[in-house]
Write a structure and sequence with these properties.
Oligomer: single chain
CATH architecture of the largest domain: Sandwich
Largest sheet: 6 strands, antiparallel
Structural class: mainly beta
CATH topology of the largest domain: Jelly Rolls
Mean pLDDT: 86
Shape: globular
Strand content: 35-45%
Radius of gyration: 27 Å
Number of helices: 3
Helix content: under 10%
Number of domains: 4
Number of strands: 40
CATH superfamily of the largest domain: Galactose-binding domain-like
Distance between the termini: 35 Å
């Protein structure tokens, strides 16, 4: 119980509380993201875990052998692959490059620190409350020999706590440490959590201690946080160390791109090529957008260009060049937007996939009288975004800022998708996040549902799988079906939670398609958006990282038409006096659960058996889980003697 309270305390600005005695205080989570009203006066909730958003910092064979000479500068804009510059930074340490998890960051890409290692696995997967040194970002040696305090050496950077991730408590911190010529790491700056602040704050430190002026000086950032997952997030940008600086040189002559490029598609971030070509005008976005920011305290002028090309074939679909320059005010952002070209006339017998790259570039004079001598700040004057037209649907951008799970056993979650032509679902790709507890091998059941009146209706297919984690942060695991499941204009992909431990699935908070999410704690599907104005809930917008794989795979059977018969088993009578029956010989196992997910009874069933004796149980509601090697059906039954 004490550990549960400790976990609950990690939610200073999104904490959900009810009256004393409520089971909400038993949730071992940090954000409560979704909730539904059960058929009894009980709440079941989606629980959220903040997580990290992009590829890990990986070791590189290109690390330098000699010390870095001043100036030392990195805005991380060149880290498009998610990897830090090995000529400036030591390999490893767990920190990773991101452009989606912060708010109002200075330029594109920041470095994020949390409680997970280089591939997104918790540093401590045993003790959920473990806390201590976590991610570290260490510089390569920097040559400060021959310098002294009189040379006015300054070290500066921007920092933010939380962003779109998890809020650090007062006992969490981000620290900057300098390495002395005696080999001792000294803390020269420390910021504790516990205080709400959505700004990117500027820090500037003067270097005066003689023990730092030697040929292999190093500095490092280090986060102190919970070690059982991607918690207690800190973000760093625009790291700059140089001599001859002044306190007043905070403002840099730099106009830079910042926000990620939006999707080429209107409804999705990815979709099957044949589905796009069935209605390309309706599926193409009205505009593709990003923004730039002027970091200088004087206005400037820029022009921008845009290209749309397929990186697989090299074909260019669109070229745009702004004809006149545009003023951008000092210390201000500015939106860049244009209407993309609709793509048609693709021969799908020859072309199976398009990888569309939207590329923006601005023309600046950042290299004229540069604020940072020797650094060409045009390095951040371009940005790209990719939209894939292949064999799957996606609402997400491939990065998750939060991981969510349902906190009640035998609950269901579904995401809605729309077709332009009938198709087949052949599997599901999911981003399952490792946090708090290792769920490897735990069962879950993936499901496909038809549509009626804007909600899931008939269960078309389901298959049990074991939980698998992806190899790296933000990757997906594919769960293939035994055959292609026929679907028409609208369908739903979801999962049934087996057991009390919810499966954490990534939530992208930058793409707001929460209106496509439905949840079911018993027998009724409820849109998540029903709870947007519920005063008892913290409502978070976003898209689940759940991607249906479309098309019938070669060599596998398919359903010829969408099944008319619901894949279900009825049990009766309901209410029952204790003797439960069914009309099928397909059931091989029956499990009985309390509403809180506790398993009460487990019994194998022979084909000739069609009854279950529950007369020894007290009156009340129970879950029956009926299963065989191919499918699972959950029923709610009321015992009343």
């Amino acid at each position: 119980m004490n550990n549960f309270r400790r976990f609950s305390s990690k939610v200073p600005d999104a904490v959900i509380r009810k009256s004393e005695g409520s089971d909400w205080r038993l949730l071992f989570a940090f954000l409560l993201v979704f909730a539904v009203v059960f058929t009894l006066p009980v709440y079941a909730q989606f629980v959220g875990f903040p997580i990290g958003p992009t590829q890990p910092t990986l070791p590189s064979a290109n690390a330098r052998n000699s010390a870095v000479t001043l100036p030392f500068f990195d805005d991380f804009s060149l880290s498009s692959s998610g990897r830090l510059d090995p000529s400036l930074w030591k390999a490893g340490g767990g920190a990773y490059v991101s452009n989606t998890i912060t708010i109002n960051h200075p330029t594109l890409n920041v470095v994020t620190f949390d409680g997970s290692d280089v591939v997104g696995r918790p540093y401590n997967f045993v003790t959920q409350s473990a806390q201590g040194p976590a991610d570290t970002l260490t510089s390569q040696p920097v040559d400060l020999s021959g310098l002294a305090a009189v040379d006015s050496v300054y070290f500066s950077f921007y920092w933010q706590l939380r962003g779109l991730g998890e809020f650090p408590d007062a006992d969490d911190s981000l620290r900057v440490q300098f390495l002395t010529d005696k080999g001792v790491w000294q803390t020269v700056w420390k910021q504790a959590g516990g205080k709400q602040d959505n700004n990117f704050n500027y820090a500037q430190l003067i270097v005066r201690d003689p023990s730092y002026f030697y040929a292999s000086f190093q500095f490092r950032f280090q986060g102190f946080s919970r070690l059982s997952g991607q918690f207690d997030m800190w973000h760093v940008d625009y790291v700059y160390l140089n001599k001859g600086r002044r306190t007043a040189d905070r403002f840099v002559r730099d106009v830079a791109f910042r926000l990620p490029v939006s999707s080429f598609l209107k409804r999705y971030t990815a979709m099957p090529l044949k589905q796009y070509l069935a209605n390309p005008t309706a599926e193409t976005a009205d505009s593709v957008t990003t923004d730039i920011r002027n970091l200088f305290n004087v206005f400037n002028f820029t022009t921008f260009s845009y290209t749309l090309r397929d990186e697989i074939s090299g074909r260019t679909f669109q070229n745009f060049q702004q004809s006149s320059s545009e003023l951008i005010s000092s210390l201000s952002p500015q939106l860049k937007s244009l209407k993309p070209t609709v793509i048609s006339g693709i021969d799908t017998s020859k072309v199976k996939k398009l990888s569309l790259v939207s590329h923006f570039q601005i023309l600046t004079t950042d290299n004229v009288n540069p604020s940072i001598p020797g650094v060409d700040l045009r390095r951040n004057d371009s940005i790209s975004g990719k939209t894939v037209l292949d064999d799957y649907y996606a609402y997400d951008d491939g990065t998750a800022e939060t991981a969510v799970y349902f906190n009640r056993s035998l609950s269901r979650t579904a995401v809605r998708y729309f077709l332009n032509a009938p198709d087949f679902v052949s599997g599901v790709r999911m981003n399952i996040v490792s946090t708090l507890k290792d769920l490897t091998g735990q069962s879950m059941t993936l499901q496909v549902w038809s549509n009626a009146n804007g909600k899931p209706q008939s269960l078309l297919y389901q298959k049990a799988f074991k939980v698998q984690y992806p190899v790296n942060r933000n990757e997906f695991v594919e769960f293939p079906f035994d055959f292609g499941v026929a679907v028409r204009d609208t369908f739903y992909i979801g999962w049934l939670q087996i057991g009390q431990d919810g499966v954490p699935v990534g939530l992208d908070r930058n793409n707001q398609h929460e209106n496509q999410i439905f949840i079911n704690a018993g027998q009724e599907w409820v849109p998540y958006t029903n709870f947007k104005n519920d005063p008892n809930l913290a409502y978070f917008q976003g898209s689940l990282l759940v991607r249906p794989v479309m098309g019938a795979k070669q060599g596998t059977p398919i359903t010829s038409v969408e099944p008319e018969q619901v894949l279900d088993w009825e049990v009766y009578p309901n209410p029952s006096n204790g003797q439960v029956r069914w009309h099928t010989d397909e059931i091989r196992q029956v499990e009985v659960y309390q509403l809180n997910g506790v398993l009460l009874k487990q019994q194998s069933v022979q084909p000739s058996e069609n009854t279950l004796d529950l007369s020894g149980f007290a009156d009340g509601l129970y879950f029956l889980r009926l299963s065989n090697e191919k499918k699972t059906v959950t029923k709610k039954i009321l015992l009343r003697k």
